[in-house]
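Long-time lurker, first post. I've been practising inverse folding by hand and with some scripts of my own, and I keep getting stuck on stretches where the structure tokens seem ambiguous. Below is the full token string for one chain I'm working on. Before anyone asks, I'm not after the true native sequence, just a reasonable design that respects the backbone. If someone could post their per-position residues I'd love to compare against what I wrote down in my notebook.
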């Protein structure tokens, strides 16, 4: 398996089919028979899981994890990492904001780097539909604060398209703890502390209508998360060794759809054969 694409999905019944279809078409063309798409349906009150399951019945490359408990976008992405089989592991938002071609172009950067972060704000990026002003201002303020407080060094931490070498994806899945608004920032900070090589790469991106944002509650949540991240990554900023990732994904088998259970059992067998 060369490529795993993880798509976190919370109440994405309307947008998910077009997103999976677009990404699957490009993956089929570039990596025929050597890719998988893992849709992680999390805390859904609509038909997201059922729709993803029907897509999987038509396309055997599509796997479904249905996790009823709310674990945030970050928790869904990390669950997908732990269930992945690809040598390269990508994640992309379910709204198809990042074009399929530029998402797969991130893989090329893995020849020289461990983590390639898609960016809307570096030279060469193309934004075909901008965010509403309120979201754009909040995004810029967030990134400026991240650069000032944490010395991130990246222009765009929050773009929902990133690619990882497998060892980096599994190591980060065992370490990252912020699972909501600051998930991407925590992931990048841990990657830096563990010595992974990180680079930004331009993408073609379009804002997807339908995303909702409550500025007041979101700002309070981000400030609380920044406090935790400051304690973790600034007050205790020593270099850390990369954790040895477990082979068996930390996902309850009862929450996995049949296609994913096959992969889960295969990984358990490999783990036992390796003496784990």
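-- Answer (accepted) --
I ran through it position by position. Result:
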């Amino acid at each position: 398996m060369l490529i795993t694409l993880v798509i976190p999905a919370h109440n994405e019944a309307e947008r998910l089919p077009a997103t999976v279809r677009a990404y699957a078409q490009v993956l089929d063309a570039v990596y025929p028979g050597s890719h998988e798409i893992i849709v992680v349906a999390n805390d859904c009150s609509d038909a997201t899981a059922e729709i993803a399951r029907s897509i999987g019945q038509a396309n055997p490359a599509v796997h479904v994890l249905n996790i009823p408990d709310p674990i945030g976008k970050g928790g869904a992405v990390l669950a997908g990492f732990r269930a992945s089989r690809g040598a390269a592991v990508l994640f992309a938002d379910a709204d198809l904001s990042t074009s399929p071609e530029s998402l797969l172009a991130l893989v090329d950067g893995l020849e020289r780097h461990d983590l390639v972060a898609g960016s809307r704000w570096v030279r060469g990026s193309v934004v075909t539909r901008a965010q509403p002003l309120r979201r754009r201002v909040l995004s810029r303020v967030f990134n400026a604060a991240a650069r000032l407080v944490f010395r991130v060094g990246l222009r765009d931490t929050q773009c929902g398209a990133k690619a990882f070498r497998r060892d980096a994806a599994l190591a980060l899945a065992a370490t990252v703890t912020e699972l909501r608004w600051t998930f991407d920032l925590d992931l990048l900070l841990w990657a830096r502390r563990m010595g992974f090589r990180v680079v930004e790469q331009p993408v073609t991106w379009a804002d997807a209508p339908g995303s909702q944002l409550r500025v007041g509650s979101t700002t309070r949540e981000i400030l609380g998360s920044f406090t935790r991240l400051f304690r973790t990554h600034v007050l205790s900023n020593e270099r850390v060794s990369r954790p040895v990732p477990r082979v068996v994904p930390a996902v309850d088998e009862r929450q996995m759809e049949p296609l994913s259970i096959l992969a889960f059992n295969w990984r358990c067998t490999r783990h036992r054969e390796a003496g784990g």
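A couple of notes from the structure itself: The radius of gyration is 18 Å. The CA atoms of residues 175 and 271 lie 21 Å apart. Happy to go over any region you disagree with.
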